Amino acid sequence: MNRMLLAILLLSTAMAVYTTTEIASGYRGIGSIDISGNTLLIAEKDNSQVTALNAITYSETAVEQVNNVQSVSAVGSAVYAGTTTGVRKYSWTGSAFNYLEQFSTNSHITTDVAQLGSYTYVLVTETPSQGRIIRYDYLGTADPFGNVVNTMRNPKELATYSGMNLVLDEASSSIYSFSYSTEGRNFASFAKISTSETLSAPKGMAVLTDGSLAVADSGSKRIVKLVYTGSVLQKADEITLSFTPVDVVQYGNILFVASANAVYAIEQTDVDISYTPAPPVESQATQFEAIMKGIGPSATVTWDINGVKLSGTKVSHTFSKAGTYTAKVTVVEGGKEVASDSVTVSVTTKSAAPSAKPYASIISETCSKLSAWCECTGKECMDACASVAKKSGLPATTFDSGCVIALPSEKYDCEEVASGMPGFTKKTCSEVLEYCAKLTGAETYKRVGFKTEEEQRDATNYVIVLIAALSFVVLAAHFIAKK
After folding, report:
1. Does an H or E element contain 381, and which?
2. Number of structural domains, the chain?
3. CA-to-CA dists, residue 124 to 2, 28, 153, 299, angstroms
4. Which residue in 154, 153, 151, 111 sits closest to 134, CA to CA?
5. Is residue 463 domain-resident?
6. What is the residue-averaged pLDDT of the chain?
7. Is 414 helix (H, G, I), strand (E, B) or coil?
8. Is residue 425 part of a domain?
9. SS3 category, 107
10. What sign does the CA torsion over 113, 49, 170, 38 have?
């Protein structure tokens, strides 16, 4: 298994690295790839077959023979195999292909099938100098074809991105946006989109979950990430490859990229620094943690905190005096650096640290509104609130004078809030309160309606006096009655 560092992406002060693994090889003339559920579909032109690969285990699931296949596309539970003469449609069960129907495209090569808006469209190359985009439900009719687009000389892929229908053309190295007239038969508009990055023979594209458009640029051996700014597709990032890509798709946090004879899994590795308390206080221990993404358990984690060298995922450091310091973490896996991050830490004096203890309380008699409060102000409170929310999975709200953990809207009840707790079956409001208090390190005051210990004590004294007075009245009435 081959692992390589592919590219470096700088985000703030964190360094993310892309690593690639060849997951399958020995294919002959891959035309395109696509994802259906947890299955990676591979169209092999020279073997005239579509291969299904488990996207998690990378094991082969099924193989379907398709004469002259050029492309494969997944639309919902349907799989379309594009050939040199038409389209074959299958249903995919997750383990087998079930043939449904086929249509001719008059000897035009089908390069993609995609869902655009309400309809499924077929992309074909008609001649070396023109292409067409056809509505699938028009195939098989007397006149299935819409307008010819002469500017598309070798169209490769369709996509919907940033509210636009897009088509990628290899020959012109361009991306076009288009729309149809009401009947969906002819174009209402067709225009080239400006890109900040020059593309060279792009063969595939995919819309990613991070909001970018990934383009498999074969001429430059790159995956180029583009973001639409309103008029231009601006380059946001790139991944340099050691092979020529023909297509790209995303599955979870992994990019699958195909060459002519192999498929690679590309994963981003990253690390972020978390620390408590925030801000740190002089002469008091600060706990640092490296939160890693896409990195294995065998990785080595080292720290440089104000010149002090430490190792481990979690470390502790005490700053001797207030001031501004830098903490850096570096992660090495397989003998190579795979991620790093650095943060600027502002250490406060002891006197600057808030003296008030946080508290937690139920502030609704019906328990339909549940809150765990941190009574603090400023950045420390905000950071603590965000940290608790991140670790617990409970919602959090911050404001000028403090923060609220697990504050649902009125339509939620205590049990719905509690469902975010580990091992939840059916929790009482008090159990949820104690859980929130434990997360925040707060003192817990369980009496409903009292936010502070003083309020609770005053109310308790009032109740004691009231009970004593009522007891006196009852005794007096009883004494009078006896007389």
Report:
1. helix 378-392
2. 3
3. 36, 22, 10, 47
4. 111
5. no
6. 77
7. helix
8. yes
9. coil
10. positive
Task: Kindly give the interhelix angle for 378-392 and 429-440, rounded to the nearest 10 degrees.
Answer: 120
Work out the percent of the chain whose per-residue pLDDT is above 70: 66
Rounded CA separation 169/358 (Å)? 60
Report the distance separating Cα 191 and Cα 350, nearest Å: 63
d(CA 429, CA 404): 16
Same domain, 82 and 130: yes
245 and 278 belong to one structural domain: no
Distance CA 383, CA 409 (A): 23
Nearest to 247, CA basis, from 475, 102, 41, 31: 31
Rounded to an integer, what distance in angstroms lies between the CA atom of residue 331 and that of residue 269? 10
| Cβ pair 329, 340 in contact under 8 A | yes
Contacts of 68 (CB under 8 A, 6+ apart): 45, 48, 83, 84, 85
How much is the pLDDT for 210? 85
Same domain, 23 and 53: yes
Co-location of 38 and 92 in the same domain: yes
Are the CB atoms for 33 and 41 separated by under 8 Å? yes
Q: Looking at 17-21, 175-179, 181-185, 290-294, which range is the least confident one?
A: 181-185
pTM for this predicted structure: 0.61
pLDDT of residue 253: 81
Nearest CA to 347 out of 370, 374, 379 is that of 379
User: Is there a single domain that holds both residue 231 and residue 338?
Assistant: no
Instruction: Say whether both 257 and 285 belong to one domain.
Output: no
Query: Which residues form the domain of 318?
Result: 270-351
213 falls within a domain: yes
Q: Are residues 310 and 298 in the same domain?
A: yes
Per-residue model confidence as pLDDT tens digits over 374-430: 334 455 555 655 665 565 555 555 544 444 544 333 333 444 444 444 444 444 545
Residues 156 and 117 in one domain: yes
Q: What is the pLDDT of residue 440?
A: 46
Residue 478 in tokens? 């009883």
- The backbone torsions φ and ψ at residue 199, rounded to the nearest 5 degrees and listed phi first, read -95, 155
Among residues 296, 324, 351, the one where a domain terminates is 351
